[in-house]
Amino acid sequence: MSSFAQKLVKWHQNYGRRGLPWQGVRDPYKVWLSEIMLQQTQVATVIDRYQLFLSKFPTVNALAQAPLDDVMALWAGLGYYTRARNLHACAKIIASEFNGKFPEEPETLNKLPGIGKSTARAIAAFCFNHSASILDANVQRLIARVYGIEGSLKTSSENKKLWDLADQLVPKEAALMPIYTQALMDFGATVCKPTAPICQNQVVNNCVYSADCIAFKNGLVMQIPLKIKKSPSKIVVSEMLLILSQDEILLEKRPSSGIWGGLWTLPETPWVEVKSENEVSNTSFQLEQFQPVVTFTNQSIYDEAKILAPLKHVFTHRTLYFSTKVVRVQKNMVKCNQSCDWVKKSDLGHLGLPTPIKKLLADFQVLKRVD
Predict the structure, then answer these.
(1) Which residues contact 303 (CB under 8 A, 6 or more apart)?
(2) How many CB atoms lie under 10 A from the CB of residue 68?
(3) Which member of 35, 239, 252, 268 is catalytic?
(4) Nearest residue to 52 (alpha-carbon basis) of 32, 33, 27
(5) CATH of the domain spanning 3-223
């Protein structure tokens, strides 16, 4: 076993995370599900949803047979909804083309929807003892610091260097791959963290690589990996329509691609980009901007509707402010295209709704609040 792997495995025996529901699991379906959920989502958020997901879809075949709307409804709130669509598409392929069994080779896994190179290797390592390293953000940071890689990890040359190094460091004993892979994840998440890594603690520094780490020796821990300055988040504004008819509400199903793809939302205008938050309240909308999704038989229905105060929702790369007009009508007063449907209020809890829409409907007492 390499010195790197040996130190890591020994550290994990004493300090590795314990008690997470997907740890020690050899079932590729459960490993795959946890890996996809943990992308861009915090562990604390994933734990309950992971267990709920397994109770609803206990096998890959059960997931494959489920309607996409059911999958999206259970995913709602986790964000990055492309993951859910890919999850469902991948399950269908495994059920139909692989007889419900996950392939063991990372190269084959990598060809399936939503499974990247590192995720494919994680499944292969945890479930089939495959001797190939993962390289998620935690592992990239650890290797870059230990080996003093100062360039941007986004470049193809540095990325290739990381993959080559990562594969050289795996233990020779294939049986150790599950614990080694888990140790890589845990060490990056709890010791070699992006901010406040343990080696910067002057009182307690139990990093097993301190004697070898080039970044630590040269005082470059906080400069590695190289941080690329992010562009300022865009500010966008829109207006939505909360259209009610007795015990039903009109919803629009978003296209499968794009923001909130595949989810049910309120009919909404196109987003308008503004330069600052000061311009949000000065942005006005017209009924024509909702076409061809929805319109009314009489302009006054829109003009006289009550408007709610703008709400704010922060995405990764933009901030959305949306106001909402509340319209109570008879159905024959509304014209809408095939992307819209009338939904009973009692059925809203079974649909995939974006978090801000759920909150809006709960605040407006259309949807029962779930705390």
Answers:
(1) 287
(2) 16
(3) 35
(4) 33
(5) 1.10.340.30
pLDDT band at 158 (very low <50, low <70, confident <90, very high): confident
Q: Does 35 participate in catalysis according to the annotation?
A: yes
Tens digits of residue pLDDT in 282-320: 899 999 999 999 999 999 999 999 998 889 999 888 999
| 190-232 pLDDT, tens digit each | 999 999 999 998 777 789 999 999 999 999 999 999 888 878 8
Backbone angles phi, psi at 273, to 5 degrees: -80, 135
- Flag whether pLDDT at 111 surpasses 50: yes
* Phi-psi domain of 39 (left: phi exceeds 0; alpha: psi -120 through 50; beta: other): beta
In this chain, the answer to whether the domains covering 3-223 and 234-363 adopt an identical fold is no
Least Cα distance to 267 among 329, 349, 221, 208 occurs for 329
The strand ranges marked E within 231-339 are 234-245, 248-253, 264-265, 272-274, 294-296, 306-314, 318-328, 334-336
Q: In whole angstroms, give the CA distance from residue 47 to residue 69.
A: 22
Percent of the chain with pLDDT over 70: 98
Domain boundaries, the chain: 3-223, 234-363
The answer regarding whether domain 234-363 maps to CATH 3.90.79.10 reads yes
What is this structure's pTM? 0.85
* The Cα angle at residue 51 between residues 48 and 52, in degrees rounded to 5: 85
